[in-house]
Design a protein that fits this description.
single chain, alpha/beta, Aspartate Aminotransferase, domain 1, seven-stranded mixed sheet, three-stranded antiparallel sheet, globular, binds pyridoxal-5'-phosphate
Amino acid sequence: MTKQTGLDRRNFMKGAGLTALAGAAGTVATVASSGASAQSSNDIPLLAGGRYDFDTPYNRVGTNCSRWDSPPRNYPGGEFKYGMGVASMDFECAPCITEALQDRIKHHNWGYLSTTEDLRNGILNWNAERHGVELAPEMITISDGVYPGMIAAMRSFIPKGNKVLIITPAYSGFYSMARGAHIETVDSEMLYVNGRYEVNWEDLEAKMTADVRALIVCNPQNPTGNVWTHDELLRMGRLALEHDIVVLSDEIHSDVVRRGHKYTPFAAVNDEAVVNNSVTFNAISKTFNLAAMKNAYYYSKSPTTLARVNQYHRAELSTLGVVANTAAYENGAEWFDQAKDYLDDNHTFIENYIKEHMPSVGYTRNEGTFMTFLDFSKTMAAIDAESQAVAHGKNTPEQYFQDWLVHQSGVYLNPGSSYGEGGSGHMRMNVASARSVVSDVMDALATAVNKV
Ligand SMILES: Cc1ncc(COP(=O)(O)O)c(C=O)c1O
């Protein structure tokens, strides 16, 4: 596998502070020095003293994983060391998921599924218990990703040539979805006020022209980390309603909210007309790192709004995806609560590290998500990333800087220019790794940035 990916596995081991790793993930015995108990015979880590082990790096290299195995294809010289880009977590998944999958694969037949009732109940209970949203089964459509649901909604509400409005910087996938639906996008760039990204209300309303048929709300916002308050959501929703624009609320990061912040589902805002004018897209694929298990759902409290999306949508669910997601909904809460605290502490670690060791890098305190959006504009100016991008045939200075960082530090981050207006000078970093990996990454970044 090492040959296939062109990766130097020892780089990872060295970087991650490991001395011995077994083969591909899934067979790696990760017994924590912190006292986690020995593995069960099938390598599912046991809960020791009530704690899951997020500290021991879990080696994903060579498992065809996009976060660690894609970037090195562009760096055949072995410069790449740390995959801190794509939004998946490095942790070994909740044991209840592996157990459920192992149980199911004892049966060797993979024909069509009969029912998704347990999955649907899991979705209903999760929303009610964790977020106080009471949904009825008929309000929900199960999907195989946020992408297909959103594309169906765009096709349904936005005629070709018309537009979807995006509050930016925002998840790059929204632009791909719009391309998939043959529609245009309009950005409304946020303002940066006292260290927080804020909606530019005047600009947002000015962009709500007659050809704009939908507004994407991303809550929590990837990559800026905003967890939108009730009043902010209500204001977005009322503006959209006034301009006859439907709200598509992507809440895939809804569970990953930091201490002191509260996620408000768009469907819980205090205005029935606003709620009925919306469709919410959600999943636990960020919560439990189940992205490639292809499972999500969308819902609307308005049956007609939901029916409009459904006419363009057809889910193709996989048996293992349903098994994994159902197990996570039913038995994964404790694992996730611990993971969430760990991620929160990683954010704090990064914030303190930057203040102390990399003062030239701008830091925005995240309210949610396990991504952080760092401002490298001073370093980029110092190396003249703009001219260098032209000289190296890169589309944006941030793309050049991505390469520069890999060559100087081994760290692979996502260029801010992928996230629409307001992304320039920034890079997105994934913080969902063992603390020792995050710490090594920060040291590598500081060494590169501070010598400029
Ligand atoms: C805001 C947001 N929406 C959607 C997705 C992708 O969702 P899915 O994999 O379910 O299509 C991501 C993945 O990073 C995301 O961050």
